[in-house]
Every structure is written in structure tokens, then in C-alpha cells.
From TrEMBL:
SUPFAM superfamilies: Insert subdomain of RNA polymerase alpha subunit, RBP11-like subunits of RNA polymerase. Belongs to the archaeal Rpo3/eukaryotic RPB3 RNA polymerase subunit family. The gene is RvY_01263-1. Residues 60-339 form the DNA-directed RNA polymerase RpoA/D/Rpb3-type domain. This is DNA-directed RNA polymerase RpoA/D/Rpb3-type domain-containing protein. Pfam families: RNA_pol_A_bac, RNA_pol_L. Keywords: DNA-directed RNA polymerase, Transcription. SMART domains: RPOLD.
Length: 359
């Protein structure tokens, strides 16, 4: 009969708390996995989303957001960074560490490892919980025993470099909870990459620890942020105010970002500069500083039109994360509409009487 795996008690070992954890007030447990984001925007008739590019694995998403104020666009970005939950290491139980790295240093490196887990299938861990529940916590084991130095190496020269042992994220092994079913998806949780270096051990050094992975949000700690890049900028719009040919066209092409200016031959056989794609503009002002080309190009930005770029850490696709962020904003708006009066009575608000003070 195989021995049953049991969880180690929380009190044993050295407990290294990585960050304070609190459950989020607004969560999105029922966000829809939609390839398109058009259905989430009903602010005005002119508002909408145009998905421009999605990577093959769905982790990088680029889309245009039109017809909204900059504060709305920034709210989506902030919600992606701070409110959408993800899974990360919260507690490290250190049993043995004879390496040159301190316990806090290894704990901090473990906390920044992203895990391939769907946070919607987990619950937030209760504050000061003494029992780790499988619906809120996953426990990983990292056991690197001490390696013995061979006799050939002991007889070698004193300046011979002993072999080192690199500890990677692939050494983290999940300890299944007895309540987990054999076909439970939680058994497949693992780090995003298996080649994340955690530490380097010399011979006769060992590292034994347990890792508690929980659900959290980025406003508690940056390690819970599900995106590595979430940015937006106003949509640029470039125009050529006059025709630019031959030598000036080639110089204009050299002063602008790559592939922004294209050279085409007109009916007279001259090379004419044309704008290929205004999206490739990166903010370069070299053209405006040139004395002969400063009057040939106009650089402007469209009002209330933004270009978004979202790159997921790897647990969920970027489109799913954006949908969750918008759902959280919608729930917050519904919450504010309930607690705020629709038609405030300003007549009941009286201005305070002003008094002249002598100093």
C-alpha cells in the first residue's frame, strides 16, 4: 500500500511571509472567454474596440479603443495591473538551506515565478488561515539533497573548480491534496517556464523547502499582476504637407522610424515619399529639427482614440484578461450607482458663512 502524502504543518520550519494578502473586494469569477471585446463596450454609439493583432498563443494582444475618455482607458490599464487575480507564491517554509543565499533572498525569487494556473478555479485564501484548503492553496516541494564530491575531484588540484548544481523552476513538484481527484485540472499546475534559475548550489549544499501558491491581486503585490506589459497611447496621425522627392525623400526616410516612410515612383519616374503606416511612429522629432524638412510633415494625435498593447505573463490569454478587467470596472460602476443618488438635491447643501479672520 502506497504511503499517503500529507501536508506539512504550518508551524514547522521557518515561515517566510512574502507579502500581506487580503481578498479582493471586486472579483470576476464569471468573466466570459471571448475572442472579441466588442460586446463589452456600450458607452456611446461611437465607442468600440477593434482588435488589430493577436499572437499565435494568444498571449500578446493589440487593439484600438475609440470613443472613450483617457480616464476610461487608464482605468482599464490599472484594472489589468491591480485588480485581475493570478496565482503566485505567498509563503515559503524553509527546512534546510546551506547555500550562500539567505532565506529571504530565495523566498523573494520564488515569489516572482509565474504559475500556469487558472485563478478562476481557485478561491482567495482567508486571512490568518491555519489550514491550507485545496481550493485556495497549492503546495509545491523543492528538495535538492547535498551532492558528494567524487574522489577524483578530491585528488585534483586545489584550484580546480567543483561542479555546481543549478536549481531551476522545473525542480518544483506539486504535492497533490488527498481531496483532489485523479482528473482534477489543479494537478497540472506548474511554473510558466521550467528554465527559471532559482539558485546555484556548490557540492555538499542542499535546499529543502515547501512553497504555498495562492490567489492574489496586483494591488497587494506586483507578483500577482497577470500582465507583464499593459500600455496604451493616443493614436498618432501623420500627414505630408507637401510632396517630397528624390534626395529629400531619402533623407526624410532616414530621419523617421523604420518602415514609416515608403518611397514610390510616380508617373514622372521620381521617388516620392508616402506615409505607409502612422502606427509605426515612435515619437521621434528628428524631422522637425531638420531645417529643410521641418515644414513637410504634420504630427498629431487623434482625440479619444488609443492603441492598447497587452502582454500576458502566460497563465491566461490577453483577451481573457482584458475581459475580466472590464467586468471588474462594470461591477464597480454598478456598485457606485447603488450607493450614489441619481438626482442629488443640491438645495439642501448650504454654503458655509465666510468669516474674516485677523492674524
Amino acid at each position: 500500500m502506497a504511503a499517503q502524502t500529507t501536508y506539512p504543518p504550518v508551524q514547522s520550519g521557518l515561515s517566510c511571509i512574502l507579502t500581506r494578502h487580503q481578498p479582493a473586494l471586486f472579483t470576476s469569477n464569471n468573466a466570459q472567454e471571448l475572442p472579441s471585446l466588442m460586446g463589452f463596450f456600450t458607452l456611446t454609439e461611437s465607442s468600440g474596440v477593434n482588435v488589430r493583432e493577436i499572437s499565435e498563443d494568444g498571449m500578446v494582444l493589440q487593439f484600438d479603443l475609440t470613443g472613450v475618455e483617457p480616464c476610461i482607458a487608464n482605468s482599464i490599464r490599472r484594472s489589468l495591473l491591480c485588480d485581475v487575480p493570478s496565482m503566485a507564491a505567498e509563503t515559503v517554509l524553509m527546512y534546510q538551506n546551506t547555500s550562500v543565499f539567505t532565506d529571504d533572498h530565495i523566498g523573494s525569487r520564488l515569489g516572482l515565478i509565474p504559475f500556469r494556473a487558472d485563478p478562476r478555479k481557485f478561491k482567495f485564501r482567508l486571512p490568518r488561515a491555519t489550514v491550507e484548503h485545496p481550493e485556495s492553496t497549492l503546495i509545491f516541494d523543492l528538495s535538492i539533497p547535498a551532492t558528494k564530491t567524487s574522489s577524483a575531484l578530491r585528488n585534483a588540484r586545489k584550484d580546480a573548480k567543483p561542479p555546481n548544481v543549478n536549481v531551476y523552476s522545473s525542480h518544483l513538484k506539486l504535492i497533490p491534496h488527498p481531496a483532489m481527484k485523479p482528473d482534477d485540472e489543479k494537478r497540472n499546475v506548474r511554473p510558466i517556464s521550467e528554465n527559471i534559475l532559482i539558485a546555484t548550489l556548490l557540492p555538499q549544499q542542499e535546499l529543502l523547502l515547501k512553497l504555498h501558491v495562492v490567489k492574489g491581486v496586483g494591488k497587494d503585490h506586483a507578483k500577482f499582476s497577470p500582465v507583464s506589459t499593459a500600455m496604451f497611447r493616443p493614436k498618432p496621425e501623420l500627414r505630408l504637407l507637401r510632396n517630397v522627392y528624390d534626395e529629400e525623400a531619402r533623407r526624410l526616410q532616414s530621419l523617421t522610424p523604420k518602415d514609416l516612410i515608403a518611397l514610390e515612383r510616380d508617373t514622372a519616374g521620381q521617388e516620392k515619399a508616402v506615409i505607409r503606416d502612422s502606427r509605426l511612429y515612435t515619437g521621434s522629432r528628428g524631422v522637425l529639427k531638420d531645417p529643410t524638412l521641418s515644414d513637410c510633415m504634420q504630427i498629431a494625435f487623434r482625440e479619444n482614440e488609443f492603441e492598447f498593447t497587452v502582454e500576458s505573463v502566460g497563465a491566461l490569454q490577453s483577451a481573457v484578461l482584458v475581459c475580466q478587467a472590464i467586468e471588474i470596472l462594470k461591477k464597480r460602476c454598478e456598485f457606485l450607482s447603488l450607493i450614489c443618488p441619481k438626482e442629488p438635491n443640491w438645495n439642501n447643501i448650504k454654503a458655509e458663512e465666510t468669516t474674516d479672520y485677523k492674524f
